[in-house]
Every structure is written in structure tokens, then in C-alpha cells.
Design a protein that fits this description.
Length: about 200
């Protein structure tokens, strides 16, 4: 009797939990790997991919070995959905790569530009004509991890300014003397990395 209870407990509780956890882990890794590929981190992405596929094989093996376990299917699907969400959240926290920040403002942007340049951000200003008159368009290439700082400065000078943020795959080092652009990484031996350009 005890053996039967243990077997059923494993089949309907322990196994689905393991499948759910495995799917969260491998899908989270997969989401981060895709982001790293898009950011041209070509040495980190394969390492993550290795662990991702190993965990996936364990999860799919458990499903195939228990094809009549409906709870396992639900755990598999829920793990996939949860892993996708968690992977996105982790990627946002990592804030890997660079982005173009475009700011459009009707107000005089002189003080804003001076403040941003004093903080080490490269700023380009273009005069343009908007629907309601003259505007200033400010272009910046920033590290994604610096986004919060730049936006806080912007809101301090002009809370009503319109802005957009776009990811950038590759940025030339020319024109960025302050080292504010996130550098790419090179592989140097087993699991050792150093920043390019140092």
C-alpha cells in the first residue's frame, strides 16, 4: 500500500513539479540566449544554449516516459509560459547592450544637453519642425543599463518631453570618448572573458 501511494505521489505530484521546474529553467535560459545572440555576445550564447538543451532533454524524456500523465502536459505548458516571463524579467534586469534614445522637446534643451554631456553621454541635437512649431530632436546612444539615469535627468528638465528607445546591435567606438558605450566581450580561455577595447 505504501509503495502504491509513493508511486502515485511521484507520478502525479513530484514528476509534474520536476517537469515544471525544468521547463522554467530551460526556457529562461533560451530567452536569455536569444537576447545574447541579438546583442552579438557570440561566446556567451552557445554556453547558455548547451545547458538549455541538456535541461530540455531531461524534461522531454520525463514526458515521453509518462505519456498518459495529463498533469505532466499541464506542467510542461505552464513551465514554458513561466520560463518565458521569467526570462524576459531577467533580461530587463541584465540590460545588456546599447540603445538609441530619441528625445523630442519644444523647450530649450541647452541645459539638458549640457547636463547629459557632463555625465559623459554623447549627445547630438537636431532642429526640426513639428506640428506645433519648432522642436529639438536629441539623439543619444546609451547603454541600456543607463536608461533610468538618463530618463530621470530628462524628467527633471522637461517632464513633458516625448522620447523613444530603440535597441542597437552594433556601435562604432568612434565618437564615444567617455566610454559610455557597452563594449562587446571576447573569449579568453575556459569560462574567462575580458572586455574588448580595454
Amino acid at each position: 500500500m505504501d509503495s502504491f501511494i509513493s508511486t502515485e505521489l511521484f507520478k502525479w505530484v513530484v514528476l509534474p513539479v520536476l517537469i515544471f521546474s525544468s521547463r522554467i529553467f530551460d526556457v529562461t535560459l533560451g530567452t536569455i540566449r536569444i537576447v545574447f545572440v541579438s546583442r552579438r555576445l557570440k561566446y556567451l550564447a552557445p554556453i547558455i544554449g548547451f545547458f538549455e538543451v541538456i535541461v530540455w532533454l531531461l524534461a522531454i524524456n520525463a514526458i515521453i516516459a509518462n505519456l498518459n500523465n495529463v498533469v505532466g502536459y499541464l506542467a510542461y505548458g505552464l513551465g514554458f509560459a513561466s520560463g518565458t516571463y521569467i526570462g524576459i524579467c531577467i533580461e530587463e534586469k541584465l540590460a545588456v547592450g546599447n540603445a538609441v534614445l530619441r528625445i523630442i522637446t519644444h523647450m530649450d534643451a541647452t541645459e539638458l544637453i549640457e547636463d547629459l554631456r557632463a555625465r559623459g553621454y554623447p549627445v547630438t541635437k537636431v532642429l526640426a519642425q513639428g506640428k506645433q512649431g519648432d522642436v529639438s530632436i536629441i539623439f543619444m546612444v546609451i547603454r541600456r543599463c543607463d536608461y533610468s539615469e538618463v530618463i530621470s535627468v530628462l524628467r527633471e528638465f522637461n517632464p513633458q518631453a516625448f522620447y523613444t528607445l530603440e535597441d542597437v546591435r552594433l556601435v562604432s567606438k568612434a565618437g564615444f570618448p567617455f566610454g559610455r558605450v557597452q563594449r562587446s566581450y571576447k573569449f579568453k580561455g575556459p569560462f574567462k572573458f575580458f572586455r574588448k577595447g580595454k
